[in-house]
Write a structure and sequence with these properties.
- The chain contains 9 helices and 2 strands.
- With about 200 residues, the protein is mainly alpha-helical.
- It has one domain (about 25-170): Alpha Horseshoe (Serine Threonine Protein Phosphatase 5, Tetratricopeptide repeat), CATH 1.25.40.10.
- A two-stranded antiparallel sheet has the order 1-2.
- Helix 2 (about 25-40) packs antiparallel against helix 9, helix 3 (about 50-60) packs antiparallel against helix 4 and helix 5 runs antiparallel to helix 6 (about 100-115).
């Protein structure tokens, strides 16, 4: 099954599902990061001179996790500032999660959060990883921290919905009772309103 991401960033990108949790929240995190940074009071700046970081982020947004991780690793080696290193590690957290290499993804998430405990995007990414690993208590803790930092962040809201779907799935409202046998069924011409009363 695939999730259509056109509504999130304008290009059609399909990402396969894994363990009933779609991958779009991580990609949405990356896509919305630039637009939400100013509004949220937190900025992640990718220096245009570090083209590998820029191209790595674009590849991740396009759903090409392997290329995104490859370019981001090169960009991390060439990073000239703490903010570039933080952005690279946060994107590696997301990229390795897309590759379903959760232990490496968590290592990058943890590294970012050791340096900046208020990096809500990384908290969101790590919460999604925890959901995929069915570590719901840890996911909830990260979501609560992230929501306290950026209560209006759409990506945190999307991951919260994924957490709710995993921990408390919605039951169907309509229940079809098909216990009637074929002998009990009436054809439309046999039915009359008096039969109901």
């Amino acid at each position: 099954m695939a999730t259509d991401l056109a509504a999130w960033f304008g290009a059609l990108v399909s990402i396969p599902r894994h363990n009933f949790v779609s991958r779009w929240p991580i990609i949405a995190c990356l896509a919305l990061a630039a637009n939400l940074a100013a509004a949220q009071g937190s900025k992640t700046v990718i220096d245009p001179t570090n083209l590998e970081l820029f191209d790595g982020a674009k590849a991740l947004l396009a759903g090409d996790a392997k290329e995104g991780v490859r370019l981001t690793l090169i960009g991390l080696q060439r990073a000239s500032s703490a903010s570039e290193r933080e952005a690279a590690k946060s994107n590696l957290c997301a990229g390795y999660s897309l590759l379903e290499d959760y232990s490496v993804a968590l290592a990058y998430c943890d590294e970012v959060l050791r340096g900046n405990a208020n990096h809500w995007r990384t908290l969101s990414n790590r919460a999604l990883i925890y959901i995929r690993l069915e570590r719901y208590v840890e996911a909830d803790a990260d979501l609560l921290r992230g929501e306290a930092i950026a209560p209006e962040a759409r990506t945190l809201l999307a991951v919260r919905r994924a957490w709710l779907n995993a921990t408390n799935p919605v039951s169907p409202i309509i229940i079809i009772d098909d216990r009637r046998g074929s002998d009990d069924e009436l054809s439309p011409d046999e039915f009359s309103p008096e039969d109901e009363g």
